[in-house]
């Protein structure tokens, strides 16, 4: 039975990956922040269907001894590093925190694996934010990185750390440059869940408006349940390599709104209010990925359409809000 270790297991990607690996008869271990189990962290809801099948460990990702103990205990053959501070910030203190958490945790995990489980295969969750102010579209594995946020910078550093451990220490380590991917398990602070959850509340008469920034901003949106299959394919490839994981299709926030409100038989124009507070500078060249390499090398391709993903999110949020009213 193959043993896998997942950081960020209680998040969107971690929970889908845990279920997928369990279906493949893996022994799945997950790392949670200290105090998560005793305090009943609300993020554990994503694991409720499989929690009794998991081996959950509390560990400080910034503490080498803490990570070392988990790696020794789990003895993983595959490791998926999905935990990260994911939000784009501008405050200097928040920037320092994001940079420290994302880069230091990756380095600590690499050291622990290299020393305690050198044959373990590691996946690192990169981001399209690594390309940032790209000079071409679509972006592929040869596109230069040009991050425009500390989050993007931290992901580039993490990627470089993996390449160093792969080239210098011989660790099987690979980076998946993940474009935006959504699901009913998406965190509530992301704009996609803000849209679907607020729309559900509007449908049920609990809200009257949805405030957003630039609704013509475009993104390459996929389905998280598809993307975790790409992660697994990369870790089980013959040789370690880095891949762009994307749909190759652009949709605007306006498209997302039309699909969301249309699913509820509503017109988004009756409820959406443009608010300068939520504006972010738009990319002159859009972030859209070219996943030709992983499709040709590993046979992975996105299976779930944009519309199907949005519909699933809307129905999930509608059911949740309705249950809160009962």
> What is the number of helices?
10
CATH superfamily of the largest domain: NAD(P)-binding Rossmann-like Domain
> Any idea what the radius of gyration is?
20 Å
Q: Which residues form runs of ≥5 with pLDDT under 50? A: none
Alpha carbon gap, first and last residue? 43 Å
Q: Can you give the mean pLDDT? A: 94
Order of helices and strands: EHEHEHEHEHEEHEEEHEEHEHH
**Largest sheet, strands/sense/barrel:** 7 strands, parallel
Strand content: 15-25%
> Which CATH class of the largest domain?
Alpha Beta
Shape verdict: globular
The computed structural class is: alpha/beta
Description of the molecule:
- This protein starts with a strand and ends with a helix.
- It has ten helices and 13 strands.
- Strand 2, helix 2 and strand 3 form a beta-alpha-beta unit.
- It is α/β, with parallel strands linked by helices and 326 residues long.
- It folds into two domains: 204 residues, NAD(P)-binding Rossmann-like Domain (Rossmann fold, 3-Layer(aba) Sandwich); 94 residues, Alpha-Beta Complex (UDP-galactose 4-epimerase, domain 1), CATH 3.90.25.10.
Supply database-style keywords.
single chain; 326 residues; alpha/beta; Rossmann fold; UDP-galactose 4-epimerase, domain 1; 2 domains; seven-stranded parallel beta sheet; two-stranded parallel sheet; 13 strands
């Amino acid at each position: 039975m193959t043993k896998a270790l997942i950081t960020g297991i209680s998040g969107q990607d971690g929970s889908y990956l845990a279920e997928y690996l369990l279906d493949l008869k893996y022994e799945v271990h997950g790392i949670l922040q200290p105090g998560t189990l005793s305090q009943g962290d609300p993020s554990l809801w994503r694991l409720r269907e499989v929690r009794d099948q998991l081996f959950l460990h509390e560990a400080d990702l910034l503490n080498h001894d803490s990570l070392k103990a988990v790696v020794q205990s789990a003895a993983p053959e595959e490791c998926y590093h999905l935990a990260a501070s994911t939000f784009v910030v501008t405050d200097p203190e928040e920037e320092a925190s994001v940079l420290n958490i994302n880069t230091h945790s990756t380095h600590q995990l690499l050291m622990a694996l290299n020393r305690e489980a050198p044959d373990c295969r590691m996946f690192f969750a990169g981001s399209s934010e690594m390309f940032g102010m790209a000079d071409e579209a679509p972006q592929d594995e040869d596109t230069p990185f040009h991050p425009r946020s500390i989050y993007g910078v931290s992901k580039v550093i993490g990627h470089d750390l993996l390449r160093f451990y792969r080239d210098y220490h011989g660790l099987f380590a690979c980076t998946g440059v993940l474009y935006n991917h959504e699901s009913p398990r998406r965190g509530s602070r992301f704009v996609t869940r803000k849209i679907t959850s607020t729309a559900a509340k509007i449908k049920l008469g609990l809200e009257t408006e949805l405030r957003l920034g630039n609704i013509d901003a475009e993104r390459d949106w996929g389905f998280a349940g598809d993307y975790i299959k790409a992660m697994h394919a990369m870790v089980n490839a013959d040789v370690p390599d880095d891949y762009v994981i994307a749909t190759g299709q652009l949709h605007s926030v306006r498209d997302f709104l039309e699909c969301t409100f249309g699913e509820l038989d509503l017109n988004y124009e009756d409820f959406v209010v443009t608010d300068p507070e939520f504006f972010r500078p738009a990319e002159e060249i859009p972030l859209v990925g070219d996943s030709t390499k992983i499709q040709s090398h590993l046979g992975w391709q996105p299976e779930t359409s944009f519309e199907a993903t949005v519909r699933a999110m809307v129905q999930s949020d509608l059911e949740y809000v309705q249950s809160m009213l009962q």
